[in-house]
Amino acid sequence: MSIVVNDLNLRYLYGAKAITNLSFSLEDSERLCVLSSHAGGKTSLFLALAGLLKPESGHIFLNDLDITTSSARERDFVAVYGDGGLTKMRTVARELAYPLKIRKMPLQERTKIVTKTASNYGLYPLLGDLCRQLHDEDVVRLAIARASLRISQLYLIDNIFSLAKGSDRVSLFDELRPTIDSFQSNVIFTTDSVDESFSIGTRTLILNYGIMEQIGTPHEILSRPASLFVDKLVNRHNHVSTINLNGVLSFRSCRYAECEDGELYETVSYKYDATRLFAIFHDGISLETTLPLKAQYKLKIIPESVNYFYSTTEKRIQL
User: Fold this and answer.
1) 99-149: pLDDT as tens digits
2) 194 and 77 part of one domain
3) How far is 199 from 220, CA to CA, in rounded Å?
4) pTM of the model
5) Which residues contact 288 (CB under 8 A, 6 or more apart)?
């Protein structure tokens, strides 16, 4: 099965752009992770693919069939919403049974599957509880368990692990990742976690307020980020961090940086008698640039320099 998104544009009801000129494709059984920060456009893309948000323009193709205007029922994708998408006044047992019931599965067989699934996901003691009574971690377990009971051409999962916090999120992801890996069809998994996206995805698509910054394998993105936004998102310490007191320039796992008059990114202020800037290559070679005293400059991180200086200690370079 193939999925193609061609020049997709989405706009919120109040007029702001949610997705801008987005195009990508998925091959059979490929897993695509959509990575962005808060309000980056990942949920809007999820809703458009699920058939719950009408695009302003562009097309979505499923096996060469245009499904842009098809309803969610017609698409019949499995969708796991960011809040779990559970019916609050249903019991856990009824919530698990619902996708089986609407497909006319006999009651006895349905009950057997629900019991087994609940046991596999640690939900058996909670079968009689209402969904609104569940802890966030159990909401995530129930949402993923319910999705596992369906066979679909596409599984859409919208940042569901954000319901859990801190170390609980990490352990819950490790617990449920095998279920997601077991899906035999295409998976589109949206998240704000770099670790989650690189763990699940064959490729990762990075959005920045609805604009695609880069799409590629984890190795391609880590080794050759397409923009400073991508670099900061996936390599949070691989850029010049600050100018410290006493005229000391502080690098933390720094990529080659240079002073440039064209396209500029990072603003650095010099308040001391510093006349030279040293940039560090991955192999330890230094580049020296003469700077006037007490001026303000902008540093550019060069995306083309793909080698990293992996150091857990802060390197201090005297100016």
Assistant:
1) 999 989 999 999 999 999 999 999 999 999 999 999 999 999 999 999 999
2) yes
3) 14
4) 0.74
5) 276, 277, 278
